[in-house]
Amino acid sequence: METNNSIIHVILTGGVGSRLWPLSRKSKPKQYLEIFDGKSLFEMTVDRNTHLADKVMVVGNVNNHHLSEKVMNKTNTQYINIVEATPRNTAAAIAFAAFAANRDDILIITPSDHIIEGMDDYNSAIEDAVSKAKDGFIVTFGIIPTKPETGYGYIEALGDNVISFREKPNETTAKDFMARGNFLWNSGMFCFKAGVLLDELKQFQPEVYEKSKAVWEANKNGYLDLDLSLQIPSISIDYAVMEHSKKIKVVPASFSWSDLGSFESVYDYLVSGNHPVDEYGNMTIGCEKHTTFLGLQNTIFVYTDTANLILQKENSQDVKDLYNALERQNSELLN
């Protein structure tokens, strides 16, 4: 007899959006920037999954959970709040959500900073994943690629079977993946029964499992202990479980997807929404003043009150190096 177990939407909010500095700061990471028709990526994530799940969990951290709370209050959404004391990567974050659920509850794990369009395709992909999760599989979502993208990891697939996970490729390899036709972008979205994920984590990363369990059992109203948390190995769910488990399935998904992980992807998204660019492909972001580009092509001018960034669109991935350099200097410009 089937029991009525919940479908829980788990929103991961830990990222700082370092590739979108100076728009994205530690005090307001990219997922909370209300630059998408007055909404943030986080709010759009809540909205698109409301009808798909019975409950919502937010796994955040001490620096951003008040920003999540504002959005949840704005959208009048009841939720289970899990507040990490320190970042320990996605294996621990997802383990906390699984420990907070019943073993047979189905969790839909989504990052909070993705743009998704094509809701019919999205809804059917989620339904397919939930069906596979009910059968005991851990499901990952692979996006059918539209170009040879070097900023994403890839999933090599045969139907719904995963052959391998691949790191972010160089341009030649990315073109090869496109030509071969059975490679999907790794979306970082997952679906599974809580108990299935925990059993696999326990098998392949027993230390992460045990230490995450100890942290969860010591939680105070969803707030996690710092000293105990620091003992958890920092490892992604991909390395911890996905690359080892025999229970992995992939749903190849045709909805429009971007993790907005670079100014190039923000540029492409804004252009699709008729954000102005000049005849040479130059764009301003965040600046209301008249700005003219002379002798430049595909240049992005990012304006904020305390810092500006001028970059060639194709150098978008290098912004993270700039962020890391400012972090080494303990720069106030990151706050």
Account of the protein in words:
This protein has 335 residues and is of the alpha/beta class. 33% of the residues lie in helices and 23% in strands. It has helices at residues 41-49, 65-74, 89-100, 119-134, 171-180, 194-204, 206-217, 226-229, 237-242, 263-272, 319-328; strands at residues 7-12, 55-61, 80-84, 106-111, 115-117, 138-143, 154-158, 161-166, 183-193, 248-253, 256-258, 283-285, 299-303, 308-312. Strands 1, 2, 3, 4, 6, 7, 8, 9 and 10 form a 9-stranded mixed β-sheet that branches. The longest helix is centred in the middle third of the chain and has 16 residues, at 119-134. The N and C termini lie far apart (53 Å).
Which labels suit this protein?
335 residues, alpha/beta, three-stranded mixed beta sheet
Derived structural class: alpha/beta
Largest sheet: 9 strands, mixed
Mean pLDDT: 92
Q: Which stretches of 5+ consecutive residues score pLDDT under 50? A: none
- Measure the end-to-end span: 53 Å
Give the gist of this structure.
With 335 residues, the chain is of the alpha/beta class. The protein has eleven helices and 14 strands. The N and C termini lie far apart (53 Å).
Fold blueprint:
Elements: E1 7-12, H1 41-49, E2 55-61, H2 65-74, E3 80-84, H3 89-100, E4 106-111, E5 115-117, H4 119-134, E6 138-143, E7 154-158, E8 161-166, H5 171-180, E9 183-193, H6 194-204, H7 206-217, H8 226-229, H9 237-242, E10 248-253, E11 256-258, H10 263-272, E12 283-285, E13 299-303, E14 308-312, H11 319-328
Parallel strand pairs: 1-2, 1-4, 2-3, 6-10, 12-13
Antiparallel strand pairs: 4-9, 5-11, 6-9, 7-8, 7-9, 13-14
Helix pairs in contact: 3-6, 3-7, 6-7
